[in-house]
Amino acid sequence: MRKEPSSSQELRKSDDARGMPRRIALVRREAPAQLLEDRSELVTTAPHLLLREVIVFQICVIVLAIVSILFDAPLEGIADPEHTPNPAKAPWYFLGLQELLHYFPPIVAGVLIPGLVVLAIGVMPYFRVNWESTGLYEQPWKKTIALVSGIVAVSVVIFVIFHTWVVLVPTLVIYGLMILPGLPFCPARLRGVLGRVHLADWIMTWFVIVAILLTLTGVFFRGPGWSFVWPWQGGTQ
Amino acid sequence: MKLEKMITGSRVWRSIVRHGVEPTNRNRVLTVVQNVFLHLHSAKVRRRNLEFSSTYYLGAVSLILFAILVGTGIVLMIYYHPSVPQAYNDMKELKFVVGSGMFLRNMHRWAAHGMVIVVFLHLLRVFYHRAYKPPREFNWVVGIVLLLMTLLLSYTGYLLPWDQLAFWAVSVGTNMVKAVPVLGDRIRYLLLGGNVVGESALLRFYVLHCVILPLALTIGVGVHLWRVRKDGSVAGSSGRKRG
Prior knowledge:
- By secondary structure, chain A is mainly alpha-helical.
- Chain A has a domain at 92-230.
- Helix content of chain A is 50%, strand content 1%.
- Chain A has helices at 45-70, 95-103, 106-123, 142-161, 165-179, 188-195, 199-220; one strand spanning 42-44.
- The radius of gyration of chain A is 26 Å and the shape is extended.
- The relative contact order of chain A is 0.09.
- Residues 5-9 of chain A have low confidence and may be disordered.
- Chain B contains twelve helices and one strand, in the order αααβααααααααα.
- The mean pLDDT of chain B is 92.
- Helix content of chain B is 70%, strand content 1%.
- By secondary structure, chain B is mainly alpha-helical.
- Chain B folds into two domains: 1-36, no CATH class; 54-237, Cytochrome Bc1 Complex, Chain C, CATH 1.20.810.
- At the A-B interface, strand 1, helix 1, helix 2, helix 3 and helix 7 of A face helix 3, strand 1, helix 4, helix 6 and helix 7 of B.
- Strand 1 of chain A pairs antiparallel with strand 1 of chain B, so a sheet runs across the interface.
């Protein structure tokens, strides 16, 4: 059933609830691969899945209990608005953002960047380019690489202006790996491995690495006045 | 064995669990579809999707951690007053007076940190497996909302001990809200119930943390799991298949 229904073959709809609906599958050319029938083996949820869930639950509780016995949750002195610790740090999962705040104006680091990241990740599955199962170099790639290179070039200039080295370095490393398969001196085996990576994976991996590095910097390498310290130097004043 | 038969054969038991207990496929299916909690599952699953590398059980672990957080959180509420300075004194009481109070607080805290990490790993797993591809794209969006709610839950809970760590972390965070154009100051005022982090902020964060956000997250998780079923069960790594 690959044909689009033409006007003469239009499906008749009936409002009669007693009628038996006819099963019609219309698989269009651009239909997602998931429509292909999955014929792999089925097992009953009880007990196969339920048993595994119980085991996972038990592992979670045991691990948490052990951690809770070994490590106490932190508690400092009572909240005192008169006495600001230096540095005052947000919870660890926001320290990547706080680290960005050190480089960019608040409207950029606190609103624009997190907003755009959430938006980009949220709408990502609606773009066909992110469904592809062919690697970046397994399809016409020159235009894509040119576009990415342009974006990277602009970003690099911005990162240099704002001294954002912790973002600049991983950006250049990932970009280097990404363009490597297109370069003539790239060994064939490496080209085979890197060339299979999808564009979406390159971008996500870049984002994850940058986010982790920013967070680690904020957690371990920031001391009084948000200056650079080594983790063993002790943070707060 | 006889006792088991007596119990499972009794009228009371059969009024609760209507299907038999013999290990037949029919009874196994009925176990799931006749139970209001279990029927969020489909009656059958692909064996392939049970493999560890298929999902790493990250969604399950997220939900389990949330359940542990609700459980420990409710007990903690019994010992907690969202007022200044009693909130801080309650932390001390949990440590020195309440039996296993510190253990309870530790469980809640580490589970909370764990949940933030595991939910993020869950997002990465779904991404790298291409499990967001149609028809699952909307459930990905639901998942993003759940991730944001997880962060907000963790963040609102961060203030409740009312120590220096809590106070200044929330001060730093809510100062970022100021940067939002036009509405920044108003959103911050709405969040804090004032211009500084004080007693009204503590109460608001408490209500958000204990009532509004957990309720919203519970409903969201319901939608998320429902959609997993409606969109054809978990994708495992099948999204990565070539061709």
